[in-house]
Amino acid sequence: MQVALVGITGYAGMVLYQLLQNHPAVSGINLYDHKLTKASELDQVVPIFNGNQTPVWPYDDDAIIKDNQVVFFATSAGVTAKVAPKYLAAGFPVIDLSGDMRLKNERQYLKWYNKPAAPAKFLRQSHYGLADLVSAKAQTYVANPGCYATATLLGLAPLVQNNLIEPDSIIVDAKSGTTGAGKTPTPSTHFTQVDENLQIYKANRHQHIPEMMQALKRWNEQIPAIQFMTTLVPIRRGIMSTIYAKVRADITEQMLTEAFTQTYQDKPFVSYTGNQLPDIKQTVGTNQCAIGTVYNPVTNTVMVDSVIDNLLKGAAGQAVQNFNQLFDFKETQGLKLQPFLP
Amino acid sequence: MQVALVGITGYAGMVLYQLLQNHPAVSGINLYDHKLTKASELDQVVPIFNGNQTPVWPYDDDAIIKDNQVVFFATSAGVTAKVAPKYLAAGFPVIDLSGDMRLKNERQYLKWYNKPAAPAKFLRQSHYGLADLVSAKAQTYVANPGCYATATLLGLAPLVQNNLIEPDSIIVDAKSGTTGAGKTPTPSTHFTQVDENLQIYKANRHQHIPEMMQALKRWNEQIPAIQFMTTLVPIRRGIMSTIYAKVRADITEQMLTEAFTQTYQDKPFVSYTGNQLPDIKQTVGTNQCAIGTVYNPVTNTVMVDSVIDNLLKGAAGQAVQNFNQLFDFKETQGLKLQPFLP
Amino acid sequence: MQVALVGITGYAGMVLYQLLQNHPAVSGINLYDHKLTKASELDQVVPIFNGNQTPVWPYDDDAIIKDNQVVFFATSAGVTAKVAPKYLAAGFPVIDLSGDMRLKNERQYLKWYNKPAAPAKFLRQSHYGLADLVSAKAQTYVANPGCYATATLLGLAPLVQNNLIEPDSIIVDAKSGTTGAGKTPTPSTHFTQVDENLQIYKANRHQHIPEMMQALKRWNEQIPAIQFMTTLVPIRRGIMSTIYAKVRADITEQMLTEAFTQTYQDKPFVSYTGNQLPDIKQTVGTNQCAIGTVYNPVTNTVMVDSVIDNLLKGAAGQAVQNFNQLFDFKETQGLKLQPFLP
Amino acid sequence: MQVALVGITGYAGMVLYQLLQNHPAVSGINLYDHKLTKASELDQVVPIFNGNQTPVWPYDDDAIIKDNQVVFFATSAGVTAKVAPKYLAAGFPVIDLSGDMRLKNERQYLKWYNKPAAPAKFLRQSHYGLADLVSAKAQTYVANPGCYATATLLGLAPLVQNNLIEPDSIIVDAKSGTTGAGKTPTPSTHFTQVDENLQIYKANRHQHIPEMMQALKRWNEQIPAIQFMTTLVPIRRGIMSTIYAKVRADITEQMLTEAFTQTYQDKPFVSYTGNQLPDIKQTVGTNQCAIGTVYNPVTNTVMVDSVIDNLLKGAAGQAVQNFNQLFDFKETQGLKLQPFLP
């Protein structure tokens, strides 16, 4: 299968390219980039791929559709909002790692991304691909979830779907490394600023909030809102989403652990470790989400520790998982990755 | 003034020694250590003090009382529980950085520290020295607060003392660097384990929980409990205590910010920065606590970001501040420190 | 093929286990450990392999020989010096990641390792497996090179083998992350000590010096000695060996680059990048050694920058490469690894 | 004394400002900046000085001379080359942290800095202020040495001045943290790039090479050149300059250590620690240079390990030391700093 990849210059595109090279169903990868006006070579475009002279083509919808059977977009916000309708109209399979086609509501997109949304009729055709909970099989357009949204929603699903917590009590204190902030050098990602520091950012303004609310409300319409905060920590890769919620009056600790066990027992990419709380390190390098829980009877609060590699399960790994589902390949194909230990 | 310092081998003792050397009221520092059986020299006991041949004496209560006017204990749990009564009986001033004399209740100490407490009559004579909110003036025995407790209580005080939040809604997600975990090499403080990782530890079991509850209940007896979690982050120094609470129905955002402003406007060592959320870096190297707040009307939640240098405001700096109060020196004496920028 | 692995508890053993699991010629891995007295399970012995209940057996030569076709030792110094003779006597294939069987001279081993060596007759039968320069094909006992030795010897080989530099002018300033220092927690690997620090260690005393001299002298008997220094840097994985040497009077810059090009042009695991100096990051996660060179006409000095992942090319990766050579598998089998980017 | 500071926006200016605030001879600090066109406030110009409303004025030579008794320039290359003549003509004291007035030779400046130099007659009037080896007393214009130059020259001085080493054998492998690379965000100082990485940069092209050669030749005209390499390491502050040289035939190890001892025994800011090799950490936070040496009889090579805090001894600290010398204050005034331990 020939696959197209748009956006190799970003971190997620770079990792996705590595995964696709090892995927048994992929016979060739065609690279495209919006910034090019004429064909170039990969190590010219991304110097770290030193010696790799794979061609990179200027972005071209028609060429992508003609020469490939699927396209992955690892582009920044605003790109696919414009081009998604063409692919949807053509019925051409797309896996979109950007946030453009995740929200069903145009105004929500405009509010949180501060850019014009794709027309609502196309937004409605997009599938929100939280791959461990819903399959992309037979879909055309997959909106791959955001990194924070993935860790947080997988941590919340058993509680919210089974109505185990007070609906208005969800508080999420999420931590991420610098690859989540993108490749462009900025004052807040300068080594001198990140190192030996913790920085809270986008307080109550993170653009993953509406996609989480959209999913949570679909699972349980009683959830009114979530308190969601993000802190930049001095690591490169990994997200820890620490989730707190008050447990409903009639719910026991055993019901909590059973909900997690049942939700994830057959899921190859989610590990529920009970009250053994996972470190970030256990998942970095893999497509795994590891989840631990601790119930505190004194405060009647459940704490969920959900960790992922933001570039794999939170981006490129889940994209490949959606690709596998969409084409009905074995779900784990190309994703048998070992954690980057020690 | 001659001062005694017991426990130079730990991180807090090391930093306290540096502060006392620069304190204008201190004419000499006598060092004592429990592990010695005969006198040694500082750079033999703590190699990093290369070239410093100040004597270090075996621990000896009588010598301390005879040759000094005050003693600082920077010792681990279990040491001062045994010796505090002697100093209290003698009316000799003590500033105790350990947790031994913070709790008024013997059983609480036994439960959280798993060691026998000092007798209750002595515990009652100890002053819990949260120096920015209560003065140690004319006290004999000051129990210097724990690092997490300091950051968290200073962040909560305006809310709890002014009854602005729902009493059962407090959730604290606190993060600390490795100096908070002590100097002894362990698997969980090995560079290979800490680096590029986040580790939740002592979930619901951190020994600073009871001292926080003791203070909170004194401020507002309606507070039933707090949810308190600690995560080890790959930095050396600094604590960020991220605090969440539901705001009471009749309370406005302005009332929240006014409470912080009024509580701290005359406090030289607490900076309230409104909704400019402080980074850890702004306080590292100083005795400052910096606090920012953001109110979220969607969830009716206030988030407090309270940051300190765990070895200064969270240990040695606050100890000197208590020393200044106890002897009625100017509060900022010996503590005009600049943040370690950039 | 059934393979035995002794020493899963160390960093190199852990990574080797991951590689062997993905190796197409390996049908089963039997784990053995010297510290066990009865069989256990992997996640009991190494908690990071959470959920993996593969049995780990007490070390037993006879069982290893009976149940496997090859054994990998990822053990610390002193272990294989004792057991190597038995395997050699039995003609059973061994790949030994420790330093015990690298030196041909018993007294050298005793001097640098401070332990008794294996008998000289067995040392002579061991093959020093610097896999990119000499094949282990048809060998019985492969002594896998040390991590520093690998990076340094690959950087020096074209210069020394082609007699391009002044023999007494070699200076190596090597830098390594903490995984090179092993898993046991020590004061010098405590996060607080490593972080924001550089520490020179084992000045002129590093045990890889004699194995490098043994190889260099074999290539060019004029080399009298090398100046070799090691600095611990705050990273987990990776070695950079920065090598300096005076260029011989009649040698041109072009002759230098040609020597590197010719030595490595057909080597799948060594990349010569000319005067593009490689970062450590380009090799971490792979079995690659990347080498760049810069000639300075002002000082008549060539600087070689040789970087590897110390746990892969410097340990487990090269071990698998030797395994492939020994059994005449394709050299790259099980080693098509992508760098851990970004 | 009123002092002017130009360039508070850079790292060195920031730290210099902190030092001058604590200097007993400084009654007021007037801040000026080239980028301003009208007066501003410090926390507007440098947000980290949150709450500090000290005015910052547009740069103005005449105002500086009229309102101050000395000016410190912490500006980037190219600024003082233009304005130095005016101050020299006026006989107004300047301490210049930039590289503009360090080289005596106009063409050398043009070659290494790629900018036009100040006229040679002014360059000749500038004093190269390597403060531990030569006093700035009664000078007008002090060119404060570069950070790498300071660590390297202090490490080499005893060897070169006493003619103990082979003149053409000097090799310097210097390592620096990111504050040495400046505040402007770039791809090579992005956290994701620096973290877990080592990067060699400016191979044989570092602009501190000519100022080192100028000093070395003055000390010993036989020195033809030095081999000087720089590696960026994942730390914020600190330089380690690792220096190698062949020892002259008639020189003993004792003569080496005596040369260091004698050169530095009365110097308050240089510590010679013999063969105890200093870590970077011992000097960070102070104006100290710590130097250790190890002689290797096998290679007849001396290795010098010279460490400093690049922003203090390598910039702002040495600038204050020069200020003290220039005005004949006690050399240690305002510089009694403790290392930032642990």
Quickly list its features.
homotetramer; 342 residues; alpha/beta; Rossmann fold; Dihydrodipicolinate Reductase, domain 2; eight-stranded mixed sheet; seven-stranded mixed sheet; 11 helices; 15 strands; AGPR_AS (chains A, B, C, D); EC 1.2.1.38 (chains A, B, C, D)
Question: How would you describe what is shown here?
Answer:
The structure is a homotetramer of 342-residue chains. Chain A is built from eleven helices and 15 strands. In chain A, α1 packs across α11 and α7 (147-161) packs parallel to α9. The longest helix of chain A is centred in the middle third of the chain and has 15 residues, at 147-161. With 342 residues, chain A is an alpha/beta fold. Chain A folds into two domains: 2-145 and 313-326, NAD(P)-binding Rossmann-like Domain (Rossmann fold), CATH 3.40.50.720; 148-309, Dihydrodipicolinate Reductase, domain 2 (2-Layer Sandwich). The two termini of chain A are 35 Å apart. In chain A, β1, α1 and β2 form a beta-alpha-beta unit. In chain A, 31% of the residues lie in helices and 21% in strands. The first copy, chain A, has helices at residues 11-21, 42-45, 61-67, 80-90, 106-113, 120-125, 147-161, 191-194, 208-219, 253-264, 312-326, and strands at residues 2-6, 28-33, 40-41, 55-58, 70-73, 94-96, 127-128, 141-143, 171-176, 199-201, 227-232, 239-246, 270-272, 289-296, 301-308. Chain A has an eight-stranded mixed β-sheet with strand order 3-4-2-1-5-6-8-7, sandwiched between helices. A seven-stranded mixed β-sheet of chain A has the order 10-11-9-12-15-14-13. Chains in contact: A-B, A-C, A-D, B-C, B-D, C-D. Chain C binds chain D through residues 168, 171, 173, 175, 177, 192-193, 195-200, 203-204, 225-227, 229, 231, 233-238, 240, 242, 244, 275, 277, 279-281, 284, 294, 296, 298-299, 301, 303, 305, 307, 342, and chain D through 168, 171, 173, 175, 177, 192-193, 195-200, 203-204, 225-227, 229, 231, 233-238, 240, 242, 244, 275, 277, 279-281, 284, 294, 296, 298-299, 301, 303, 305, 307, 342.
